[in-house]
Amino acid sequence: MRMFTQKQKDTYEIEKMDGVYSHGAYLNIKGVDYVYRKFSMIDIEFILFALSAHNALNNAVFITPNVVYVFNDEPEFKKHYAVCGLKDYVPTNAGITQSLDNRQNAVLLTHVKDILMIGDIVSIEIYEKIHPQQEPLKNLQTELYGELENRFKVYVPPHRRKIVLSPINTSKIQTIQLYAQFYDIPLNHILSIGNDNNDLEMLASTGYSVVVKGSTKPALKVARCISTKTNNENAVANIIFRVITGRYM
User: Fold this and answer.
1) Which residues contact 37 (CB under 8 A, 6 or more apart)?
2) I need a surface site. Which of 12, 71, 126, 198 has the fewest CB within 10 A?
3) Is there a domain that residue 75 lies in?
4) Cα(211)–Cα(3) distance, rounded to whole angstroms?
């Protein structure tokens, strides 16, 4: 989770926020990404085969710690998202008006073999519709889900408009434990913020836990505190940050 806005990072001179990302696949410590779980090439080949068999390659987003990659070159897709070619991509911290996950530019892959060049893939998101004009992928939650669930960790958000694949044995709490060991912090001194069933183990295991008001019922039940003002996890993080530090925007 990206906990702070660019304005806050600039104001408070904060580096990229230390923490756990991509459902526990990697963590960032002092500006360095440490990959804990990633897809093997055999995994990627299996996923590509399944996507191609269901004509769903254009619906998939391949996520690394720094960049997201797509195979979708439809004009309507490019109207909605910032996209560049693989050879044209230059890492930048500049703000992007619209991106697939609100933080990263999308890099277009034109050949399937290009996926061998992009580094550690920590998460893959498959959308029912990746842009508003696209025909919906009707078998996403049935046939495609069924083919993938036995080989990977599959997460379905409450809105059910996509499925998220993670490498098997990926776990937020395992990565949080590594983070705690690095800083020599007891797990019961860590605060977690969540909103749905994917966060249950994390919320139950950390010493302090907060969920937003629109969270799923299991998440509301397990958390130690519930925000009654907002459904935005970043907003909760911002409030906690200001309370702890005593600094204001």
Assistant:
1) 24, 25, 26, 122, 166, 167, 169, 170
2) 12
3) yes
4) 14
